[in-house]
Amino acid sequence: xxxxxxxxxxxxxxxxxxxxxxxxxxxxxxxxxxxxxxxxxxxxxxxxxxxxxxxxxxxxxxxxxxxxxxxxxxxxxxxxxxxxxxxxxxxxxxxxxxxxxxxxxxxxxxxxxxxxxxxxxxxxxxxxxxxxxxxxxxxxxxxxxxxxxxxxxxxxxxxxxxxxxxxxxxxxxxxxxxxxxxxxxxxxxxxxxxxxxxxxxxxxxxxxxxxxxxxxxxxxxxxxxxxxxxxxxxxxxxxxxxxxxxxxxxxxxxxxxxxxxxxxxxxxxxxxxxxxxxxxxxxxxxxxxxxxxxxxxxxxxxxxxxxxxxxxxxxxxxxxxxxxxxxxxxxxxxxxxxxxxxxxxxxxxxxxxxxxxxxxxxxxxxxxxxxxxxxxxxxxxxxxxxxxxxxxxxxxxxxxxxxxxxxxxxxxxxxxxxxxxxxxxxxxxxxxxxxxxxxxxxxxxxxxxxxx
Length: 452
Fold this sequence. Notes:
- By secondary structure, this protein is α/β, with parallel strands linked by helices.
- Among the domains are: 7-208 and 430-451, Rossmann fold; 209-246, no CATH class.
- Helices cover 29% and strands 14% of the residues.
- The protein has 14 helices and 13 strands.
- The strands form four sheets. A seven-stranded mixed sheet has the order 4-3-2-5-6-8-7, with helices on both faces. Strands 1-9 form a two-stranded parallel sheet. Strands 10-11 form a two-stranded antiparallel ribbon.
- Helix 4 (124-136) links the parallel strand 5 and strand 6 (140-145).
């Protein structure tokens, strides 16, 4: 089979689509989200003009967040491997145009002797995604996963599984959220499948390529500089875009969260009047506030240990544990004993990742699911869930919550409500990245149908 023609992601004129730039074309396409979590993919597809029909996830807390934010969609909570849940999913997704999802995959790195990954019991959720696509038969699908899969020797197997014996043509690309206006570097491996009867070419999923040309360099202890590399002219252009608060193509940490500087460590209230924040200070903040009412949620901030405060005062913006003086690497500084002792009297390697401060002029590194994965660039505190959400490009009207039922619930991950909210944000696909992908999928499906 000839290799399909590749087209740049945003150059729609190459598709010969006589459609307005906002993609308002006929009836909205319908999407169903498998393994949806809090709904990052759904939010992006909604922003791209899709109708979100429903979603499924096993986590009752993430499902509660999804139901709160997508009130016209059907949120199905439960294990997709359960016949009852599977029946609900197939009924709710009947006739949708696009299926999306990010199924967990545990066994890719152990593939040997040409064994089929889809047959490995540890990949049962991945198998369920493939089966769902086969049964729903959407015009297109999008599956995202960790970029490491591309280096595990299984990429071709995954493509073959998703092709469903020729029913779909499948492409795979690694994309970085930074390159699509998200103030955070987060690589994802994206598979886009088009039903074989849709005779349209695949897109090339590319963006600004900023991570290839800009870097935060350490110039000795306590000295960090944003600088270009490789192509001087290209880097200079990107540096200009990053520094421009009115440019949405590249967004720095400060441009994302500077209006939330009034938050403080130990803040218990989880809401704040928007009027108390003042005016938005960047185009990105205006975008995030676009549909916000009078109250902003998810603004409580964790308490902070005195030793952590002391260490953060010794770390500059953009810095980490390497900037600590010898005395600040002691396990206990103030004499207050907290957490497990290392036995050596010094910080352990595991602690090093907890002492990192964001740089205001640069995008954030990849956030994980813990509140201490990033500290504020100027305040001695961790970030609120809202600041996590901003760095993930969730709009401010999107509220993270948990299931009100306490205790152990099927599918609930231990850690409590506060940790669940951080985990939901940290595990999500950035909506602005999802929106960019969704707009291309929408254009391709529309073109195919109007040329049929």
